[in-house]
């Protein structure tokens, strides 16, 4: 079914402009976005956090290889297998390589990091296209970060984003490796909040994002001895 986009000029200034976008399908809103644009302006005010020190993507396996190894292990819990098979069968347009155990250990923390990039070649092209691709990438696996501390005790029954905000700081190529750093400072009341940072390989902070989502869970049932 076709999607109709309605764009409203919310504000037009000398330095900043804001547009409100509503996507309609079958006459019903399915997406609402507020986009802010800025003219390039040099400024002596500059600082950023330091990029985490992690192994390069060339030294890490692709997430599909990790899933294949996990499925080849005869010991993992059987309830994980259907979900992993579904993930492995997806034609995902993103390459992902997990850095470290991804929230593993006896007391996993609500944080994880990935090397990410778009599959295929996008080229220099329009910077806005790379921003669009990065926005797609930023939504992938972000909310799951809030589940890491209790993923062995709770099974997810429903997971969906409620809102998603993104800020672009520096030029980048979405078809080149970037480090995606995800941290969840809070979860409760069937909701979770996750903050993300996308780093270029040269240590420049390219973009930041924040997402709140609904997370409904139930306790994992112990394996039956029958």
Automatic annotation (TrEMBL):
Gene3D superfamilies cross-referenced by the UniProt entry: Acyl-CoA thioesterase, double hotdog domain
Top-rank taxon, per record: Eukaryota
GO biological process: acyl-CoA metabolic process; fatty acid metabolic process
Domain Acyl-CoA thioesterase-like C-terminal: 74-215
InterPro entries in the record: ACOT8-like_C, Acyl-CoA_hotdog, Acyl_CoA_thio, HotDog_dom_sf
Gene Ontology MF annotations: fatty acyl-CoA hydrolase activity
GO cellular component, one term: peroxisomal matrix
PANTHER family: ACYL-COA THIOESTERASE, ACYL-COENZYME A THIOESTERASE 8
Family: Belongs to the C/M/P thioester hydrolase family.
Name the record gives this protein: Acyl-CoA thioesterase-like C-terminal domain-containing protein
Organism: Ornithorhynchus anatinus
